[in-house]
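Encode chain A's predicted structure.
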Amino acid sequence: FWAWALISPLAPSLATKLGLSSFQQSLIVAVPVIVGSLGRIPIGALTDRFGGRLMLPIVSVATIVPVLFLAFFGDQSLATLLIGGFFLGIGGTSFAVGVPFVSAWFPPERRGLAIVIFGVGMVGTAISAFTTVRLVEFGSSATPFLVTAAALAIYAVVAWLLLRDAPGQVRPTTSMAKRVGETLKLGVTWQAAALYATLFGGYVAFSVYLPSLLKAEYDLSINRYRETVYEEVKYDKPTDILKRLKKLNEAEAKDLKLSFASERAGLIAAFRKHFREYDLAEAVTFERFNKEV
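Encoded structure for chain A:
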């Protein structure tokens, strides 16, 4: 996830350097997310066949290639950014390897907690936001990519030496196409996909686009964005966050405050109105999931 989100904090400065439009700036941060999301289907199928002990090191090593490519060629043109970002999406497929790998080690009643602990790795997007710009200032534009490549290499070696697939795993014997086809016939597949796309997809999409959004809408520099992210860890109230943006003019601050207040009021009203229906729908969805599985 750290590697997957490397382009995001640098997008505003890359857009300025290369003269990118707002659409092109959005595109360079979206491509790794899209590739990583769709790539989880074949990578997950390969994990079922070969196991996480093999696939986790392979995904890590494969991600090093686009990371190094972006380190040395990423800031030369939009084309190099898109090429590097496309293959950087490989890093995002690791989730499809880790979830079945971890789940296989635990009985059903303990898998939820195990997956949650594994999911803490999503903090990599925050690490990217906190460190990427600082590493550029400390060294050069290639520094965060080189550091990440080294971390990926170390993890690949450690994973290969220490990880083991859970005993007793049954490997599929049918083709990936057949298994995917059978999965798509289940109604719960589409329900789970919709929930996953909305919740996790929304989190990833907004987290990688946030630097570009703040720059485009509020003209926050990279340094000021980084300071704001640090402060958001300390303060949980929108008004407190706004106070830390000292250089925003009063009109922009007022607009932001009104926006936060309006969105919060709307969410609370919707939650109160639809709580019972949502709760019932959620219970039905998971009950159907348990039965079909």
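The longest helix spans residues 250-292.
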